[in-house]
Amino acid sequence: MTLAAVIIMFASRAPGFAPWRQAANLPIYGYQIVHVYPHDPKAFTQGLQYVDGVLYEGTGQVGQSSIRKVELATGKVLQQRDVPPPHFGEGITVWKNDLIEITWQTHVAFVYDRATFQPKKQFTFPGEGWGLTQDATTLIMSDGSDELRLLDPVTFAEKRRIKVTAAGAPLRNLNELEYVNGEIFANVWQTDYIARIAPDTGKVGAYIDLRGLLTPAERQNADVLNGIAYDAAHARLFVTGKWWPKLFEITLVKR
């Protein structure tokens, strides 16, 4: 294992610590807060997507997992379907008239009617499920490793995998995903950083440093940053986290 790989591995386990700046010499983006919205502090956010004026959210924890439609301005849950044990809900994505949700360790993905949340079908997959997004042709799934799986959105068959690297070293712990203007944004689990990944090569082109969004007092009852949504129609980027009391609309600022 190279020195860069070791540094990145430890970085993925150390919130607030970013030694990959030296290891990878990659651009770092900061942020400006545009708007702060309420967010359910009991929502263990695993998946987030904004489509056609609706914020969809998937939450985790066995016995507490759900899929939701949320009113952005107020954080009010407009519609909810609970996910029964033993499933631990993970990433979600909207695909045409469907909402697809993967689970963590039970190897099952659920397909719901996007409007009613009624179950339509399900499929199985090997390994763990972490994050899910789509690029208008293919589902993109993370499993906590340094690989992203590309799945057929109709048959759910795995088409290929993308190895994600930063300065040539594997970047692991890729979690919640969002496809933003030709890039894959991925939360790096246990950090306040998002990696910006090129879908064709798997190379990380930059990081987004989101430290400081919550106050120290707010962090006391909150878990890690996790949850990225992009409003493509109005070019708005939203982020939140597990058990966070707030959801943030931000713009990126290159350092």
Strand content: over 45%
Question: What's the Cα radius of gyration?
Answer: 17 Å
Care to count the β-strands? Answer: 22
Largest sheet: 8 strands, mixed
Our count of helices gives 3
Write out the strand line-up for the largest beta sheet, numbering strands in chain order.
Answer: 16-17-18-19-1-22-21-20
Classify the secondary structure makeup into a structural class. Answer: mainly beta
Q: How many domains, as an integer?
A: 1
Q: Please mark out the parts with pLDDT under 50 across 5 or more consecutive residues, or reply none.
A: 1-17
Mean pLDDT: 90
How would you sum up the global shape?
globular
Distance between the termini: 30 Å
Molecular structure report:
The protein is built from three helices and 22 strands. The longest helix is centred in the N-terminal third of the chain and has 9 residues, at 3-11. With 255 residues, it is mainly beta.
